[in-house]
Amino acid sequence: MCAAKTLLLPFWLDIPQRSRAIRQAVVLEAHKMGTRWFGERIRRVEDPRLLTGRGSYVDDIHPPNLLHGAVLRSPHARARVVRIDASKARAMPGVAAVYTHADLPPPLGDPLPRLIPHPTLIHHKTQVALAADIVRHVGEPVAFVVAESRYLAEDALEAIEVEYDPLPAVVDLETAAGPDGPLVHEDAGTNVAAHYTQRVGDPEGAFASAPRVFRERIRMDRGTAASMETRGVVAIWDGRMRNLVIYDSTQSPIPIRNGLARLFGLPQNNVRVIAPDVGGGFGPKIMMFYPEEILVPLAAMRLNRPVKWIEDRRENFVATNQEREQIHDVEIAVDGEGRILGVRTVFLHDAGAYIAYGLIVPIVASTTLVGPYRIPNYHCEFKAVFTNKTQVSPYRGAGRPHGVFIMERLMDRVARELGVDRAEVRRRNLIQPDEFPYDTGLIYQDNAPLIYDSGNYPAVLEKTLGMIGYAQWPQQQAEARREGRTLGLGLALYVEGTGIGPYEGCRITVEPTGKVFAATSVGTQGQGHFTVFAQIIADALGVDVRDVTVTTGDTAAFGWGTGTFASRSAVVAGSAVALAGQAVREKALTVASGLLEASTDDLELAGGKIFVRGAPARSVTLGEVATAANPLRGTIPKEWEGPGLEAARYFAPPRGSFAGGCHAAIVEVDRDTGAVRVERYVVVHDCGTVINPMILDGQIQGGVAQGIGGALYERLVYDEDGQLLTQTFMDYLLPTAAEVPRAEIGHVETPSPLNPLGVKGAGEAGVIPAAAVFASALDDALGTRVAEMPLSHSLLLEMLRGAEAPAEDRSVHS
Amino acid sequence: MKPAPFEYLAPRRRLEALEALSEYGVEAKALAGGQSLVPLLAMRLARPAVLVDLNRIRDLAFIRPYNGGLAIGAMTRQRTVEAHRLVVARVPLLAEAVRCIAHPQIRARGTIGGSLAHADPSSELPAAAAALDAHFVLASVRGERVLNSEQFFTGYLTTALEPDELLTEVRLPALLPDAGWAFVEIARRHGDFALAGVAAVLRLDGDGRCTEAQLVFTGVGPGPVRIPQAEQALLGQQVPGPSVAEMARIVQDNLDPPTDIHATADYRRHAAGVLAGRAMLQAANRTRERR
């Protein structure tokens, strides 16, 4: 059988690929014998389609008679819109329509919906789909052109006359938070949208009596997710049936469907939102609504023709939400052995011009900060501040990298000041395995208590130290130094909040062919959902993983759910998939027990068949059971709970589950040029039970790449007028294969008690501690005190010259 | 990011291209590999009325012996140049500089002439051409003229090319037997434009004393930057020797590089000096290896 399979392998596979493929064929055979799919290194079933260009992204949707949209965007960071004259553009050949704010019917001309309110979010400002009278950041939409082609639409943009009255912009975060900054929203009377404080224990008392206190000021600058696929929307309106179909490159098709139905006054059933293949989400595509998600359907309905808008890369830089900019003042109180007595952080969070998504990023930053450490007394306080820059909402990590960067900088500082080894200081403060569930005393982003469900942080730390060769490090570093090479080792631990509610769902149907179809509520942006969900179902129903087809991101296939964000799909949707699989299994056994005249206790399910234990000849296929479960005459018994071999289930976790891990890296620095090369990157990760180690490794490797970008390359640079100077990939530097090493990945598995699979999320693990790791490594290499991210050759050299100068005592704060 | 409307001409013969440039003058823009011009068009930063696509003109792509050195057609792909036997043998500095340009995919489209005519101040080829004493053949319906690099590069993104002229060929003398070379640069990422870079050619006599030095920098000025004082400082000196450190200092003292979002002027000045020193050592070593 295996030999026959090798003959069918595609000719383009090289020899190592072939041997892997043969191994996989063996694994597949083993599964037929009843081994579990769950936990196996199964290749992604979606990859052949995606890797051979047969994916279907929004721009691949070509309905007949299609029109193309383009957005006129503000060139000013802050200005009054005095007058718009679109008459010339409207008269141009091929132009179907030009919309400005005056053309938007209520409620589409009102500020867009507010997401995720918070009691302290006093000024929950959201933008208008097309600016009414004021523009508040470069790139804010002012007019929308619809034409026969994108070329003609862009020609027409140039013919729209807009008279702006430029106003002073506030770009600098501290100026915006201060008393003299120009106001982004004049009616608010302040740029401070929210001021929120959480406290645990008695921080004042702890600091007053602490033997040692160390302070730091830490800055992180702005970055962007830079998804390979930019945003895009296609809207198709059927005026007779009053049906609206939207293809949207979004992470949250169901909430978009619900919101659009309300905004356009349609029943939810008449709106179908499809998030087809999505080429990267990373958070910014969870935002709703972006103006184009309103403008494109509006135009399609007005013009009664399909309309497409695809965000171009320059638009993506100014019109897709950004993240990261925060300034932290932080201090730590420790005893003489480096045990933490208290931590205080007061920080500014740059919200950008609006704050539709609420306070998620700063809340996650301040609650992730405590990490795997026992911190008896904690004070965190932030102001979310408006500036005349693009709006901020979560991007992979969503505040977690900030929190980890700050805490790990403090741990390195304590180690240095007290002369204690860096790993030992951390070891002394770790929460121990017998302390779970561990209540941090904080409230998390889901408004639930921040209670760590499970973990084994000491095991994670020791495994990392072993993998990176920590014991031999001083010797290795000294040897390199003798050769004239400057090496540094960095270390950082983190806890990652994942798998928050409210709920997700799944419906599984077995058809009379025996093939299994599952529809889930979460959309997919490349995470491997088609494979991991199929693995869970294949185990539940005793079928081959290739006989399971998963549909995601189509509201017509499944209509209840929230979306893909916060590393929650495997946890929340995955658990719903498991529950639905269990329900279908039970129903299959119930129906089969009638067909086989045997008790369900005596039945087994494997290889697509149900058979009597010990008498495998007495069997029915799942397909036969599916047919029997949907009879044309007679009746169906009450215990079937309805017709068909089908079940839908939901899973709602009580609160998030908390993954954790430790990263370590060795870097080499060229002291003369500031060039940094990553020599090794080690990740030890605990996300509970692992569904598919190959997919998990991929998630981590991708995150590490983004983490390296955020630490060494990616910075959005605004000038003092609020102009974004980095609007192309020539100036906004993403790390490439040449800059990113292959991460060496180790696993520790501490199952979560909060869900039936024992899983925790893994989507952000790779990116979270990367900045902290590099800061730690560079300090180790150069004797610097890195307190900002991202770095560059130029900044590093400046820092290095500062460190080399026999200047003033740099530890004056202690 | 769609270009403004333009008329598109794709001549198959060199003369047709020159006639088009003559007819449309400043309204026309020649398209070579498109690695700079196409993004500029897409962003509507360049808006030519007529685009003259040179990619179908076969006799603009060649590498052939010329006066002991080489003549390279303007439309020769960078990827062809870097691996070409004659280039590696006669002008190895050029092959080394080309390998610093971006990535193989980009070099497979990018051309020698396109890069030189675009004259980006941070690009590799202008500095390499200047260090190699390249000569540029400019053609128009009015005839041909040949310029050296000081005449050809006139400033930031500008050259001596008249609106009706086309850069058709670059002529490069062969590396002399007693000469060594180096091209070193520092960039944010592998393949990026240089924060600072230097093309160096060094001739040493039998005692290891410098008889001639060419040092041309990129990324630190409006175009390729030559620092005659630094070259002078090496003449008659032992290389390697104290003169290299001295030369690096002179380089740093004589540069006035720009600050931008990728690096400060200070950084570029410092890096240029460091790289000049490294280039000198490498060039000197190569001189010895060639003996």
CATH class of the largest domain in chain A: Alpha Beta
Shape of chain B: globular
Number of helices of chain B: 12
CATH topology of the largest domain in chain B: Uridine Diphospho-n-acetylenolpyruvylglucosamine Reductase, domain 3
Mean pLDDT over all positions of chain A: 93
CATH topology of the largest domain in chain A, which one?
Aldehyde Oxidoreductase, domain 4
Q: What is the terminal separation of chain A in angstroms?
A: 71 Å
What is the CATH architecture descriptor of the largest domain in chain B?
A: 2-Layer Sandwich
**Structural shape of chain A:** globular
The stretches of 5 or more residues of chain B where confidence is low (pLDDT under 50) are none
Number of domains of chain A: 4
Compact description:
Chain A has 814 residues and is an alpha+beta fold. Helix content of chain A is 29%, strand content 24%.
